[in-house]
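Cont'd.
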Amino acid sequence: MRLIRVTKRTEPLGWGSVLVFCAALGLSLSLACAALAVQGVAPLRALALLWEGGFGSTWSLEDSLRKAIPIYLCALGVSFTFRMQIWNIGAEGQFALGAIGAAWAVLTFPHLPAVALLPLMMLSAGAAGAFWALIPALTKVRLGVNEIISTLMLNYIGILLLNYLVYGPWRDPAGRGFPMTMEYPAAAQIGMLGGTRLHWGLVLCVVLSGLAWLFLNKTRLGYEIRASGESLRTARYAFMPYGFLVFLVMGICGMLAGWAGFVETSAVAHRLQPSILVGYGYTAIVVAWVARLKIGPMALAAFLLAGLRVGVEVLQLELRVPAAFGHILEGLVLLTVLAGQFFHYYRLRLEWPVRRAEGR
Amino acid sequence: MPIELIIPLLAAAVQSGTPILYATLGEMITEKSGVLNLGVEGMMMVGALSAFWISLATGSPWLGFLMGGVCAAMLAAVHGLVCLGFQGNQVVSGLAVTIFGVGLANYLGTPLVGTQGIGFSKVSLPVLADIPVLGTILFHQDVLVYLSFGLPVLIWAFFRYTSLGLHLRSVGENPVAAATAGLNVIGLRWLGVLLGGFLVGLGGAYLSLAYIHLWTNGLTAGRGWIAVALVIFAFWRPGRAVFGAYLFGGVMAFQLRLQAMGTDIPASILMMLPYALTILVLIASTMTGRGGEAPAALAVNMEPEE
């Protein structure tokens, strides 16, 4: 005697998915606020500060957008691999390698003019990120090594490599002992968009989104990526070059995450330092999945989660909430949205025991 | 290297391998039931914090140890709810559990940073400890290490000789056939998730109660992920898990010792060792075993019935 029956959904959920998403977000916010209440923080004041800090003023909106740029670039990359069910969770390490690649260009050719230096930085950042992503691609395709573990381990190694460089050979002698490289010359810095605190990385995001959309929807390779993600067996039947596609999506992801590292060091930090590694690569996974790998919703989700990050920073300052609160929130959003996606595929029907008895 | 350096190193390998062993065995049980739980790192952190906190509050390290397991199992239940209840993607849900669990433990643990805890200290076993070499390595440890010696045997026997163990394995191999045979697939998978989560939590609890008697945020430092890798390395066999865990414990202990001795090798390079070794070990194990021994239905959700 069950009251609830689960049936497969035949028609798409449509606007209901927005409703489900809002419900999930509401649930995770209230759970996170419960965690705050446990620590003796007034939850409503915290919520107000979270909104105020992330989205409440021009200043905070600019901050959120600035943070959204690297998150979005990583998410765009990760979405390529997730589309093929390649579980690349290495965006964080690829981001670190991109930053290292960009720094290498600056430190090797410090006197180049911007027209040469910026493209060179972009090239080396993209190549370094892609290189870091192609290692797990190679071990997966050639040896069958689980990419979840290898990409994750490469995150740790990439972060330690960055630490090694800024504590050792690349440390700025004039930096009073701080682990960081010298400040980048003006030619190595991405310019600002007239009169705002936003930089040209935003334009890069827009251009890359267009290219990604065109690639996925209008080219044969893009079609093959989408098809082999939906069914590996079909793809094999159709003789799609699965191994090549894995290299391709991993390379694209590494390059995009690498560019995120380039943008962040060049436009925001103005140098290579460990504090650029704040988990954008992991947030990107949340973003990609919450948006169900769609480009438009991903941009929105990146902005939203970046805003939450900025809001949490304000909470840290104002109410002394530990930084880890942001991770609680991100984890909860991902969990609730994931559970909510159930309703995309199934519907619940209430069923009265009486009817059931008659029916069967 | 002289013998008087090797023996303490091996003893340290056993000690630092023990939390990884608990976690590996826990994840192994969960995976045998067909559920992939990538939340190990988060569950270990939650286990470590709750064990530390509860033993501090009650004065009983044993209660802390137990509750470390229970609290981690509660976090594993979140994974169970999302994957078994709501058909969520197991990979993504596990990642979310890790993000959430690590965040929660660091959040609640921040006020405790630097606090001295209570825990287990080393007890030499009579007679056994006097065995030359082996006695020093294995039997000058704390009681939780001795407990972990029995665990792989117990789990091996459970899967091999009990009907519950057999049922658990069969829902991981072929859930549809198991359901046809009248087994409660979802119920058994819940058992795998909770029991596995409990053991993972004990691994975390070991870290804060016996390995370090001090709370620091980010205590697990990737050990949970290493445990996930070791399940693959061990081909889902408890015996090989022991070997893998002590190997990693050895590398971690070795790297710490080298740092303490003040070598010329930079610390960041030394700290890469366990992570690099994880990749190498995975390459080695997939090349020999080809991963063919994974439970056939691992990470595959069972559709809710019509």
